[in-house]
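User: Structure please.
Assistant: Input sequence and predicted structure:
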Amino acid sequence: MSEAGSERNQYAGWVGDKIKAGLRRFTKPFRRFGLNFRFSRAGKKSLEPTLDIEELFSILNKLNEHLKLIENPSKEFPTYYNIEEDLRPNIAGIYAKLGPYTHPDVVESEYSLRGGTGFEEATSVNEGEYYEFEEDFEKIIIHKSTGKESAIRGSKIKAEPFEILGKKFGVPIPREVEITFPSGYVQRVRYFGYDHHEALKKIYTGIIDKINLHVEHWIRTNIPAPNLNTIDEQRGIFFGGFKSGIEEIISQLATFFGEWESTGYKSIVVREQEHKSFLDGLINLHKELRNYRIMVKSNIPQNILYRHTYETIKTSSLDISEKGIKEKIKITELKTLFERNKLIRSKSKGGALDLNKDNRGQEIEEVEYLLDEYGMEFEVANEDYEFKRITKTPDGSLEYKKKRLKKGTFLLDVFSFPDSDYVDRGGQWRVIPEEYHDLITDVDALEMVNYIFNEWDEYRDDLRDGRYHPHSLTVMDYIMANNPTPEGAWDFVDVPVFRQNKGKNIEAAKKLADPPMPGRKSFRDYTLRFRHPHTTKKGDTFNEVSPTREATNLNPACDFRVLSEHLMEEGLLGFMYIGKKRYYEHVENVPKNEQISPVLTTRGMSMFFIEYICRNGKKIEEIHHDLQHAAKETLGFDYGPRIFGSDLNMDPFSIDITSINKKLRGDKS
């Protein structure tokens, strides 16, 4: 063929395409009656559908980018994968080192005793426990950890008594204190304290010197004309008895006699130094945990309606330090405040604050004030918490509303009664008064990291198929609407996808989602009939159920109502995972009537594109070309079997199932 002829053919083909495109637009209204026109152009490129759905490519591209970042995190996007691979193992390792000291209050209790539990000053000399010493025993020991005076003041101190040759002596010992662990175990301890070991040395050396003088005086008094050797010999005999007596009274002081400088004093110093180092190590581990908690909380998904702070109200303090005592007083005050104002919520009264139980004998809290019915501490809002909820506008469209919450607001109240006018209608969200904000604390680090990791799992699954959006349209709704059956099993619903015309897509989605008129079912409602298993074919009886189509992993969500400007400006192009009401629960506990938002998902839109292109294509090679073009524009399709973290499917016509199965089995075949 000549070059001129070839050019004429190409020109004619171009003109023909233009004419056919106009004819296609003209015949569009007749397609609902079964008429369908399909043309192709030169070069085996499809005239449709890439021009029609090009506007939607950018949405799927954004969703796919987010999915790939979740599955393959980078420094710019730390995600739950980082939690699993880095944060969670490191936190678990810290807890293994902490042993029973995982609760920070327990460490604070021990740490407050680092300077020693001190010596109690005598309040009575008639109890048989207090023994007077000469004035040179008067000492004041300063706790280096607290900077406060403690231990010995004056000549009357509490001490363990023992008698030597008719004279009573007392060995001062630290007072006994109790440290409570979260499990309820109570540890009773006495610490000498490394911080004042030099003062201890003077005290106990002084006691030993006084005992030596007393023994020497007794020998000189009771042995006639003793010489020096005899005195030393007799002293050695008596010291044997003194030592065993001390061992019975307090084993820690057994080495004070005879070997005090080299052994007794040294043993106390070494032991207390070791414990001080141990406590310092615990404090450093908890500081490291604080840093990890900050990192973990920065990994929380952001596109969540019921977003959690993982900050709760402290309801008990195990710390015996001055700080812990003040905390216990404030906790008691706060509980009393809630009790006095009857700040407990009743389900029977629509969440009204009342102590009375409802008809089922249940309350939202029933363990005690500040604890829910499961005995868990209430989560509260932090200073920058913004609550979002989805509502219907007067014209029936959906939009997000925002409300800034006060710090200390009970999140369970907000999630259970989210209406913005709830307070105006007599309701009340409970709020911790500002003077008690210091009782707000982070959830245990190891618990938090597991809660957030599970939340990422649910968030990722919802992004892929919308399984937590039960009121969203699904891809099957669109497929069925565009492919009516000859038997009329479902009505034809025109679902246009026109370039640069989001309004028609939104209206078409609303027609699918809403009943066509009052009293009629929506397109999502269907009737399923199935044969009763115990009947024969001759006497068939059928059971019948009428469920509503919901998003699942096999029928993912795909709802173009999201294209509304009110929704697109929120979340990830309209994607908003609902979350969970309680920080320790699962999203499935959120009632379905609250999960009303529509959503576009990676799997749903991928299946929509594949079906749309295949349905509108004429030749296999044209369809194949359009699918590959769409895959390049959108980073691929979240379609078919795929290993976590691997690339998205770039060609639905070519899926290597054998290779995928080998990788899933670890290449053992």
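The first helix runs from residue 3 to 27.
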